[in-house]
Amino acid sequence: MDYRERMKALREDRDLTQADLGRVLNKSQQGYNHIETGRAELKIEDLIKLCDFYKVSADYFIGREQKK
User: Fold this and answer.
1) For residue 54, what are the CA distances in angstroms to 14, 39, 57, 61?
2) What does the alpha-carbon distance between residue 40 and residue 59 come to, in Å, rounded to a whole number?
3) Tens digits of per-residue pLDDT, 10-62?
4) Who's near 62: CB < 8 A, 6+ residues apart?
5) Distance (Å, whole) CA 23 – CA 62
6) What distance in Å separates the CA atoms of residue 54 and residue 57, rounded to the nearest whole number?
7) In angstroms, rounded to a whole number, what is the distance separating the alpha carbons of residues 65 and 18?
8) CA distance 56 to 12
9) Which class is 3-56 in CATH?
10) First-to-final CA distance of the chain
11) What residue spans define the domains of the chain?
12) 3-state SS assignment for residue 55
């Protein structure tokens, strides 16, 4: 599972919208969508914010380990 799939799975598991996560990252829904769908790259600053938000490690988020 790559990080984009993990992003989507974490978001959907918590019943959040792309707009919700856009607000977490200070982006529009469309800006977040571009990251989740691969039209834009995830910046390291945004990775850190998402890991903090979901309370998961970066290794879990990017798919290097399966355990949260």
Assistant:
1) 9, 23, 9, 9
2) 20
3) 999 999 999 999 999 999 999 999 999 999 999 999 999 999 999 999 999 99
4) 2, 3, 6, 47
5) 21
6) 9
7) 24
8) 15
9) mainly alpha
10) 14
11) 3-56
12) coil
State if pTM tops 0.90. Answer: yes
6/14 Cα distance (integer angstroms): 12
- Residue 27 φ then ψ, to 5°: -130, 165
| Residue 1 and residue 7 in contact, taking contact as beta carbons nearer than 8 Å | no
CA distance 13 to 21: 13
Q: What is the rounded CA–CA span in Å between residue 48 and residue 50?
A: 5
Written as six digits, the tokens of 52 are: 């903090």
Q: Write out the two tokens for 46.
A: 């945004």
Task: Supply 47's token pair.
Answer: 């990775």
